[in-house]
Amino acid sequence: MYPFSTELITNRDGESVVYNFAFGSNLLQEKMTSRGIAPLNACKAILHDWELTFNQLGFPPVEPSFANVVRNEGSSTHGILYELTVKDFVVLWRGEGSGQWYDTELVTARGYDGTTYQNTVVFTCKHSKLTKNGKSSPPSARYMKMLLDGAAEVGLSDEYQKKLNSMPISPHPSALAQYLFKGQIYFHNWASKAHESLPQFLANIVQWYDDKTGELIHIVAKRTIGSTLGSIVVPLLMLPGSIMCVSIKAALAIKSITRKLILQE
How far, in Å, CA of 149 to CA of 153, rounded? Predict the structure, then answer.
């Protein structure tokens, strides 16, 4: 049993795979690798009649918004089409919020070489997770750099890269807010792979906590966006995740040192 609809799975030459179109930070190969995901294949592709927008509410003031795609006839969004094993797609699906943050749409993508890929999965932001009135809001410089670096890394068209580079960005947040956010993200990425290092029941608890914390931060951010209260409370809600981040890194360091000492004996 999979935690998502089997309609997302494609049979290719007798193998079960999932085609996923990435248009945001997942363009970066480093991000996919950090999740332990190794695509079977990857190619540059376009989603016609879909528009890139930044109307997914993030975690203000650090990350005001994230990338999303919406249907818009005549528009197009460039990205990477990944061919993934079902196992790797489960990891990706969990890393993208286990169905709490995104809907999965089945679309047709067209490769730069003209190849058509039907039954391609694209993650679209749930209505409840959109910015106020669903309007696009400038993302952080950090997040936009991830998209620009990813687009350059995989070689998306020069015209599309110029389009990304011309989009506005939001002001820089405080150093403390940025630090807490990085800790929260580290914990989130670790939680999505917790089943690899923890007993299943503990992994389920960790993933449940991660999902609920994300939902709480999102609710508070949406209600206090643009206010002084929001710029204080939202980073504070990330403090537990940051503490767990430090704890996890310390535990991994101790484990590594202990292993080396044992090998030296």
Answer: 6
